[in-house]
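Why does this matter for the project? Reviewers at the last site visit asked to see concrete outputs rather than summary tables. In response, this paragraph embeds two records directly. Each consists of the residue sequence and, immediately after it, the corresponding structure tokens. Nothing has been edited or filtered.
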Amino acid sequence: MDDAHKGTLPPISLADVRTARVTPEEALALHAEGRPGKLEIRLTKPLITARDLSLAYSPGVAEPCLHIARDAALAYDYTSKGNFVAVVSNGTAVLGLGNLGALASKPVMEGKVALFKRFADVDGIDLCVGTEDVDEFVNAVRHLGPSFGGINLEDIKAPECFVIEQRLRELMDIPVFHDDQHGTAIVAAAGLLNAVHLTGRELRDITIVINGAGAAAIACAELMKAMGVTPRNVILCDTKGVVYRGRTEGMNQWKSAHAVETQARTLAQAMEGADCFFGLSVKGAVTPEMLRSMADKPIVFAMANPDPEITPEEAKAVRPDCIIATGRSDYPNQVNNVLGFPFIFRGALDVRASTINDAMKVAAARSLAMLAREDVPEEVNTAGAGPGTALRFGPEYIIPNAFDPRLISRVPVAVAHAAMESGVARKPIPDLVRYARTLAGRLDATANAMELITERVRANPRTVVFAEGEEEKVVRAAIAFHASGYGNPVLVGREDRIQGVFRTLGVEQPSGITIRNARNSDSNRRYADYLYARRQREGFLFRDCQRLVNQDRNVFAGCMLALGDADAVVTGVTRSYAVALEGIASAIDPAPGEVLFGLTLLLARVSGTVFVADTAIHERPDAATLAEIAVQSAAAARRLGHEPRVAFLSFSTFGDPKGHIPGSLREAVKLLDERKVDFEYDGEMAADVALDPALRAHLYPFCRLTGPANVLVMPGLHAAHILTKAVPRLTSGTAIGPLLMGMSRPVQIVPMDASVTQLLDMACLAAHAAIGR
């Protein structure tokens, strides 16, 4: 196999499943649950009334049709064409699984469409073309072309992929991009730019050996030369050895284009004295001896998947001076195509580019390289091996993190600028600075922040107590927590009951999962002594405390946390929020100077993230409590990458109509005035006023908020609870929480109907809060 590296994700195999810490059953369940698959179509215009239908369809739809017939460019103004990409495959090279056919490629193509949307807000559709005939494939895509703003070719075997891409580029006036080739090349090129910089080299002087002669390898060779590497210094190898001038065995026109004059005939010979190795081949293709023969400070991109040509451990053992990148997420410097294709298409679509040319690819690579050299934001800086470590430009950070929220406002701008400079942009963007700001607003930072939280927990695993350990979904969540690399779960419950759940699930108890029986734990006396010292002046005898420790798993879990036997606690499945909190609070105090409250995140496609408080504790908070809730909520919003704009909500707006509850909210605003806090706030106001800056500007120009409120402090628990339960069910939004804020130790209480996924997420959040304590 000449080119094992395919697409944005590692080839799927049993080894990959183990690496990703998911099981085949879990993967199948995700794809089958609810609405099968990963995609659906959402309407962008209201279709509620007869008038709506008349405008959107017959007879109103005739008007845009007539305009487009007169001027085809107007399709970008009146249809979704300008933000719509087709992900097209015939399934002849699906990941690392080979020729599975068009239909079997559909899950991958749906996933690619999902990545386009997730990372760059590009809409897409998967097209699975049921033919291996090049002419038929080209004609099918060509004739469907008017529907789309761009074509992303995927999982098509070589050499047909080269022919298909070239012919479609010639026939179509929209971007056609085979990501398996160019995506890998662009991201690897970004890493190479930084590795060359760190080792004091110049591109024109380096010698590169590329092992593999498939789609990605050929694209890497072409892009390296386009960026300034001297063509004769790029040596291509395949399973037959070096691709040299005069060779006839196993050759084709694409390999021949990169044949060079050289005496080297084997990979080992080519590697002698080389500055850089690009591997797009198979596990173990590079030996320690080959690496030892390379030049000083060798640059190694071992990108075979699922296992690299040589592992970082093996490489560092013989060449500690090397810089190494792989295709793996569990090593530094991952060459991940998701850093490229969403943002490249975003920029190309926004200037209505007729193609994606070398200038645009080089611009994307240079933009990625420059981003890696910048200071890493706090919300991204989560991949260190332990507290106190940080991501910083250097040998182990030459490629940006895929969840860096700055990618959306950097790479598309560079691509768009290159398209304009190279003459392929049909709609130039006059103000690229404003364009960058617009891009930043397309995506919400919370999804990125949550992913970064999980990365940080993997790097800093913690011991989390699952207080209701006999429940099947709790056991499932604990298994997933351990398998995800988040840390060591502790299940509180009776051993025989929990072992019975493991048997029901058909799994052995993982070695990293501990069972603690509250009734006969060796720590019970220590916990009872601790609890008695806290409660003896509250009417509790020692035997009362001992009984609580033995019989109340939340009390037991709280004592574990308080005395340092665990890092965090998750509970709530079997008892109401208030009862669960009472048990935990008997052993854990609020943080000094803070109040307890629930904070819920509402994630909506249009309005972004809104923080709502208090959603769990205070039925009718007074002014001082409302003010403190605002301060703590604003701090939480900042930690998740949002600049807080706090609105105190009420049925009244700035004194009209009057009432007792609005008075408490106005008093809270005065208290914040006195505290001179460092965030925007105002109130009281109705919800529409808080969320609509235009309405405020018209009726209340004195309001201090400069944009839509994103932290909503509710007047009471009733309103907060109704809002956060209703909104996700009435919209396409999502709710996370309520997160328990204000405790001195990390505790999260889930809803009684929490799913395994919710339990896992809350456990991860609790573990994250424990890092650095």
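We now turn to the second protein, recorded in exactly the same manner.
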Amino acid sequence: GIASEVASALDYAHRHDVIHRDIKPENILLHDGRALVADFGIALAVTSAGDTRMTETGMSLGTPHYMSPEQAMGERELDARSDVYALGCVLYEMLTGEPPFTGPTAQAIVARVVTESPRPLIPQRHTIPPHVEATVLKAIEKLPADRFATGALFADALSRPGAIPIAATQASPAGGTASRWNPLTAGLTALVAILGALLVWTWASSADRPAGEVIRVDLRFPAEDLRGFGPSLALAPDGRAMIRSAGSSGGVTAARLWLRRWDRLHEELIRGVDGAFSPVYAPDGRSVAYLTPVNDLMVYALGSGTQTIVLDSGMTDVSIRGGGIDWGSDGLLYASGLEGLIRVAPSGGVPEQLTTLDTLRGDLAHAWVDVLPNAKGALITIIPRNVADFSSHRVAVADFASGAVTEIFQGVFARYVPSGHVVFVLADGAMVAAPFDPEKMLVTGETVPLPDSVKLGSTGAAELAVSSSGSMAYLPKRDAAQRLMWVDRAGRAEGVFSDWVVEMANPSLSPEGSRVAVSVRGDDEEGWHVWVRPLSGDPEVRLSYNGASNTRSQWTPDGTTVTYVSDQLGPTEIYKAKADGTGGETLISSGDSRPMFGHTWAPDGKWLVLRTDNQATGRGDIVAIRPGVDTVARVLVASTEEELSPSVSPDGRWLAYVSSVSGRREIYIREFLGASDHVERVSRNGGTEPVWSRSGRELFYRSATDSLMSVEVLPGSVARLGRRQSLFSTFGYLPHEFHRNYDVALNGERFLMVQNVEQDVGLVVVFNWDEELRGLFDN
């Protein structure tokens, strides 16, 4: 239909970084039965003006009837969701005869856009299908985060009943979320629910706020924004703002920092920060420290925008994903080093080691540090080699003076709360609290279970933040549910299995294209295991049974065997199992003493290409071995930075891989086993997850701007590139930081991708939470 065609056109524009800003009926033309989007005048004008000069005085460019709330309020930064809102208004008018908001003047219309909810469609026209009403109402939600992230998702929901939950969407305008906050928003009923809750916080945090009042706010974000790589949340010391790390596909490479002040309607992008995670505020709230994917420790001054590289670690000082950082009251930064806990001045310098890992016991890291108020010690988590088994992680107290590490609980991610308690998370995500004396660094009472549960990331990082003022923010635990989707080159998607909705990763198609191997996460004790399922829908077969992390599966070229990375012996190695589930599991000798983090097979089935552990010597190199022939692996790529995601072309000539030699992750091609040192850079502004087409004439990768890219690889004696295309937005299809999380069909026309079933998730902020804890223990 017209709306779907316009949505597709807008999706194309958005993927080329163009926001229309003035979608309305007059700008939608019909030609030969197809809809065309016309008049990109405002988009071009804003682009030529640098996108800020024309809006910094509050100018709202667009047409009031179809203008998004953020555009109406003169927001400087608009994204695809603003155009989705406008198209939703156009479709609303097509179905009911008038736009969702009307008025005698432009000012009156804008006031209604910002303050009122649209009327449901079906009462106005009973023949409208429920899923269409649900789709339109989602498209014109007040908050951008509550809308479809892309035009492609909008079009998909229109064409596919059941793409979004109808009951939940229909309930929202009439009450839904707003009804939960009615007791808090008396006198502010003209505002939408989330704005009302935030304004209540401004009121409740004033001097005359009744003592002990607890306020809970549920903020909605796209599920893709909060993937649980974590930790991604930081609360300002005074509790008046929050910073979160969120971004697009390509793992944390593209993640950015967003600042939410509770007296503002929208988040603000912290400009100039790319690839940021583990944010933490300075004690005075004026700066934020964070880590980058190559484990640089950075400090950003919120006032001036000045950035400082504290540790240019290159994987030598800070453990993988940093293991979390904290900023102590002594003004020093604390981080998880390769040999134990370290601290360093924000201005830089040589880090001081405070604790030492018990490597004989198999401890991997002293992580998720939370410095106590007196800065004499910290709560830490001892992570074992079996990282994925959260039940074996231990909470401990680190004494900075002596270096002693004293275990106090079995659990992860402990945080001190100003109420005089320590809060930590169990393996199943349940939160537990206990009285704690920060001066003596001792637990002083029994543990008490809390009603909240928290999402745990793959390394035990909880999406949880506590401020020194007693506020808390967390991402509630939910049963992660993903499904496999076929997505064509235009972005049109269809499900693969209707009866298989589980937490999954790293799908790999068999050589003949009739089966898929994928890692599936079981319950909290079982961990990740490899399964094979025919695409015909026949039952799946389990291949791995040992260890807690069996992932990144690959097929041998003959299609008989699946190989995967496993932690069965502690350090990760490569194992193999028959694809039919018979014969058990067998370790493959890597010929290299370092743990293995990834692998792929050359098409001849003789060479096994391996990617070493980031934490080992070489910071992640690519090597190759012929199992059963060689005893020592051959080094293929070994720069001073990390290399990952090796992928050999079908003719065995080229090796594609990811490297961070440029300071960010990019795709490169070089000869696989040849003597040439020539390297061709494929991606332009960041890229991950390279996958070859079965013909070998195309290389696909996921860009840092949420697109699946196709690059033609030309024949010749050296690697040469031809046509480059952006195929479709990958937003909503889960990325993977170290290994591809999709595969390509035999004909190169479809892609097997992992999609979140949930379109959005709720982030809970609890103001005055320490009072709730006190009350819990008093009772």
